[in-house]
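Long-time lurker, first post. I've been practising inverse folding by hand and with some scripts of my own, and I keep getting stuck on stretches where the structure tokens seem ambiguous. Below is the full token string for one chain I'm working on. Before anyone asks, I'm not after the true native sequence, just a reasonable design that respects the backbone. If someone could post their per-position residues I'd love to compare against what I wrote down in my notebook.
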């Protein structure tokens, strides 16, 4: 990779870290009906579509549009999940300030590199040991405390 592209990547990662610190959320999705189906999610919500398109173009993921109140302008949620979210979090980690504690938990949560070997043929169950489930539950509870509004470490 040419030097200037590497510099641009580092600048983009630093910019993304700032957006995550201000507008982002690092969380875990655990299905209520099947608690073994778990995955990490990184999302950013903003009303600026140009920002969302920048994120998708440079980091992948998906954009969803929503409008909770007709008096408000539409908002967009950019979202990345699973291993891609963990990899991206590892890349922005050195630049994070506010969300660094959440990022540490997020990275510890882990996600199998090759999902296929962890799913049943029906792709319904993730084969996780009881020990892994227990550790993840602890991480989820810590993350909920950190993400609680008004929480200050």
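-- Answer (accepted) --
I ran through it position by position. Result:
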């Amino acid at each position: 990779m040419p030097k200037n592209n590497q510099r641009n990547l580092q600048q983009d990662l630093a910019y993304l870290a700032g957006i995550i610190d201000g507008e982002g959320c690092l969380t875990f999705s655990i299905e209520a009906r099947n608690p073994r189906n778990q995955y990490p999610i990184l999302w950013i919500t903003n009303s600026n579509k140009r920002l969302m398109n920048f994120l998708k173009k440079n980091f992948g993921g998906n954009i969803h549009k929503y409008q909770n109140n007709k008096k408000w302008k539409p908002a967009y949620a950019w979202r990345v999940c699973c291993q891609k979210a963990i990899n991206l979090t590892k890349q922005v980690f050195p630049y994070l300030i506010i969300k660094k504690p959440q990022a540490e938990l997020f990275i510890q949560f882990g996600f199998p590199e090759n999902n296929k070997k962890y799913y049943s043929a029906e792709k319904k169950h993730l084969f996780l040991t009881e020990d892994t489930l227990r550790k993840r539950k602890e991480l989820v509870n810590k993350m909920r405390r950190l993400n609680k509004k008004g929480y200050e470490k």
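A couple of notes from the structure itself: Residues 10 and 92 are 9 Å apart (CA to CA). The chain has five helices and four strands. Happy to go over any region you disagree with.
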